[in-house]
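Let's inspect a concrete specimen:
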Amino acid sequence: MGGGFWPTLPLKMPYSEGMPHWWDPAWWIFQIIVMSILLLTLRRVAMSIDRDEKPSQSASRRPGTSTNTPKPPSIPG
């Protein structure tokens, strides 16, 4: 089974006349950088939204801290 389905290490990149050898690793490095920036930006936005919430809203989410908690619906039966 020479040229199998799974990649081998070290990576063997076949020669291609149309594309330079450095293109594939450069593309994957670019993708990793872009996706990391997107994830960090989304994390920063989510953290700022959580920080901007009113303290009373976040306190009412904790069980047993609010006196205005409505009763849960009862299940007839």
